[in-house]
Amino acid sequence: MQNDLIKAPLREKFLFIFSLLFILGLFIPSLVFLNAFAIAGLLLSSFLSSPIREKFQLLRERSWVVAMLLFFCWIGLSVLLSHDSRAALRALDPRLPLLYFPISIGLVKLSKTRRNQVLLGIAAMVTIVCIVCLIYSVYRSQQLNNTAVLYNDSFSELTGQQSIYVSLLVNFSIYIFSYFLFYKNISSGYKILAVLAILLLFACSFLLASRNLMIVLYLATIGFAFYYVIRRKKILEGAALLMGFAIGIFIAVKFFPKTINRFKELAYTQYNFESTGPESHYNMEVTSDQWNGANLRMALWNCGWQLFKERPLMGVGLGDKKSALISQYQKKNFGFAVRTERNVHNNYLDILLSLGIIGLLLFLTGWLLLPIRQLIRQHDGLALLMILSIALAMITENYFDRSLGGMLVGFFIPFLLTTHKEKN
């Protein structure tokens, strides 16, 4: 595998290097130069990877790229029609990756082997970052005599990123290592490293305590175990996988119980807009009078849906959505949301209320439905699982209001499809 990468064309080596630098830059947002350099390198190596004629040919073959660009055009139109032009331009900035990655990486052609080598490098990079975060959080825990800093956003504090986004990359890395472990002919030494990395990343996922992505990861693990038993008739291996998974969860709950508070919140989904209760935290007892991750989202989704119904076709406009949301909160006497200026914590609902039904249909078509259809046709289970994880993660978070969310979606979905072209 290493020799194959060494023999790769120079443009593919550059793509590999700049992809790793790009991921590293996401974990060190304070180094603006590194992030800009990595993105510029990615764009340049993508544009130089093939002649312009081949780019246009790929554009004709890859209908999802066309739909992605149409979605961004709709974003641009919403920006132009917004009354608050400054807010519109601020909202446009984290969505720019939805333009420059499809027209660059989206028009690159790679072999599946090369794409997976890049993914493996990314998984290794994420694992190294998680090791550093784990060491740092354990050190802080001992210094402060407070185990709370081992969890959630405190775990990822060193990276300057929220745990939800780091958790998505952790899930990706587990999928990638598992793919190489179960489906590629690698040496016993690499197999041991892959197993150790997977175990470490499962522990990090538990500490990051991103409820949505933990559920996605566990369902994927259980589903794969049953698939392995039924499809490949590997009864012992599948049973061992499920047994190890159950033991691992038991140990994690025993020694790191605070993560369970994130799931206890699901028992309290009732809400009162006028409630002045405190916001729940994983380091405190969960009670019914608190605003927690579950009932807060229910209340926010209610307000977002009401706002969408006022202008269902084109939405309220990207630049005007924040003020419109605050106004909706005020109508409901939702003081907590007004004070904290919360978004709706749902990427699909955010698109609906800001860009309307047209915007949501364009987004679903270009970024999810066409890619998923193509991956199913090509039997690309790894890429399919990664895109489905993105789709599920966006149910409880507004990805496009943060630069990291736009970067992750904008980079990974076009990149996962670089090995595919649509059949006639």
H/E order of the elements?
HHHHHHHHHHHHHHHHHHHH
Number of domains: 1
Gyration radius, to the nearest Å?
A: 22 Å
- Determine the mean pLDDT: 90
Largest sheet: none
Silhouette: globular
Distance between the termini: 33 Å
Summarize the amount of helix as a percent range: over 70%
Question: What is the helix tally?
Answer: 20
Strand content: under 5%
Unreliable stretches, pLDDT < 50, 5 or more residues?
A: none
Count of extended strands: 0
Structural class: mainly alpha
Structure, described:
- The chain is mainly α and 424 residues long.
- It has one domain.
- Helices cover 71% and strands 0% of the residues.
- The chain contains 20 helices and no strands.
- It has helices spanning 2-6, 10-27, 32-47, 52-61, 63-81, 85-92, 97-100, 112-144, 152-155, 163-183, 188-208, 211-232, 235-255, 260-264, 293-310, 321-331, 335-340, 347-377, 381-393, 403-416.
- α10 packs antiparallel against α11 (188-208) and α15 (293-310) crosses α18 (347-377).
- It is globular.
- It starts with a helix and ends in an 8-residue tail after the last helix.
- The mean pLDDT is 90.
